[in-house]
Design brief:
The protein contains 22 helices and 24 strands. By secondary structure, it is of the alpha/beta class. The strands form four sheets. Strands 7, 8, 9, 10, 11, 12, 13 and 14 form an eight-stranded parallel sheet that branches. A seven-stranded parallel sheet has the order 17-18-16-19-23-15-24, sandwiched between helices. Strand 20 and strand 21 form a beta hairpin. The radius of gyration is 28 Å and the shape is globular.
Amino acid sequence: MKKNPRCLLDCDISTFVHKDKETIFGLLCEEYHGDALTTTRDAWLKEIEIMQSVLLPYEVSDGHVIFEYDIPRLGKRIDVVLLLNGIVFCLEFKVGETRIIENDIDQVLDYALDLKNFHKLSCDCIIAPILIATRYKGCSTKIQESLYDDRIINPLVSGEAELADLISLVINSFPNEPAIDKNWIISPYAPTPTIIEAARTLYESHSVEDITRHEADEATTDKTISYILDVIKKSKTNGEKSICFVTGVPGAGKTLVGLDVAVKQTYQDSDEPSLDEGAVYLSGNGPLVAVLNEALAKDNFEKCKARGESKKITDSRREVSKFIQIIHRYRDNMLAKIKNPVENGVLEIDPEKAIKIQAAGYGEVEHVAIFDEAQRSWTHKRLADYLKRGGTYGNKLKVPNFPMSEASFLIWSLDQREDWATIVCLVGGGQEINTGEAGISEWIESLNETFTHWKVYISPKLTEAEYAEGKVNELLKKNNNVTYSVDLHLGVSLRSYRAEKLSAFVHSLLDVNDNAASIYADIKDKYPIVLTRDMEKAKRWLHSKVRGTERTGVLITKESARYKPLGIHVLPSDDANAIHWFLEDKSDTRSSNYLEDAATEIQVQGLELDYACLLWDADMRYENGSWHFYRFNGQTKWREIEATTENNQERIKYMLNAYRVLLTRARSGMVICIPEGNPHKTTSGFWEDSTRLPKFYEGTYQYLKSLGLEEI
């Protein structure tokens, strides 16, 4: 019997069936971290008893039995993994249960999918997920591989008495499987967590090392995290102010990097947070903050309850809110300290409103602030207008004549510290999606003109056209405090583990580049993108793809207008709806899985689905070789937006970026539904619906089809 950090027990079958049950139980208890609950201990004893009986006929085989095998991406353990006759059996026990529940079947199927997709030495094996409700009377009789040609058997169910026969039936159905690699237990494991899964793991264990990709150096976030932590250390040692700009393709893990840096800097290899060197993760993305905080709170609450601890969900919510914060609240804390009204365009601290702390000065308590989606910080005009009227996000403080953009004010806020500080800006290229979002140029201009003593560490990719309209080199050429590092760029998409070229394809598609079709040809076998003109067909395709607890949903731009005829509603914009949409399971009608409420780019930026449907409306149309942009007047017609003014040019950029965001939300594949429009006319010869003419959609459909996307 071997010890292994990935499980509680790893044993060859011959040893296992002849070892005393109490001895095996003692080993499980010894390896378990913490005190196992009575229910857990009772379940182990029953599982040992069942497995010793079931495996006795195989005592001379070279098989292995593994108890409590860790699945890092899911944050759970498989009750028993059985490696026998070239087959990987995933066994989930429900001791004392008489019924088979769908959620339990989803659980064991999730385990099988996780091994298939991310566990290197399982990817070519037959994987048999089996749910055992010990008091259930019955057993699966049909062994059938799934429709996905991935060698996963459709989930099987059994009671205690029938398990031996079911395992024998599986083995007889696949008699010639090659032996499983003897190093299976220590196989490379290369998962790509959703941001919600990553945040949960970070919050509970203060590390994401077990759930991030390590097989391919170019696909890891480790170098970026290490570089940032080194800048923080250098800033502390030298008493400097520093700022890092991290770039990355959509889905490359920018948010994960930010969360990891915040945790590592705050906890510094300790179980307790640092009181005077901590970091705060800030985002202006309200839905992202709300969804992550609620996911962390629910997970924390459930784990505390499982440990027998007395805790309320409100206590968990209060705890996790310190970890991830909405940027407006951080900003408002600093606003409360300034002299108001602002005189001569200069911000000053009002000593009657704030206490000066020896090291922090009048700044906030954190030395390090991580700003996610820094390109979405507000322009001077938007922030000044907001503060002039007293704000909306619970802030009633009016500040007339506010002199700074949001980027400048956030740098100013950290600059109030008298010792050292570091800002980390996570920057998504081409992802400004709201009017009044400044892009990255505001940050750079502030560093050039006002905060000239700050050290600037920058990704070379920040000089490309999608960031600050390609003006970064020009903006920084006279700044002598700039250091470029390739370690600050995340070049490979982690969101779509099947298609790391997805972001390149989306970029080419939207830029109408000639190479878009060839890029798609490279990814289509791993990452399907299909077309349809029928929303019902799109829904059927999605339902046919998702398995276990995989998540699907409908996406739409906020400028879309004519979706009601297709039976689609837009998800209301408050955070509570986003929480339900992303977190509720498929039994809840508020869940994204019901495919009734479509989320916009505002609600899904930074988050992700497994499979998605993008409903492409007439707001952005491919006409005569280029994209044209339209806005619905709310009543009778679409009006084209001509790029004749600066405001219109900005709006066009936001509309293009909205599709960039939506086209990169799905991890495993997507269907794009481009409606046919309404081709019918009245008896008088007029269009039945002049807001949905077929010509509004036909050009876009033909363009996407020309890139190799197949219609279903």
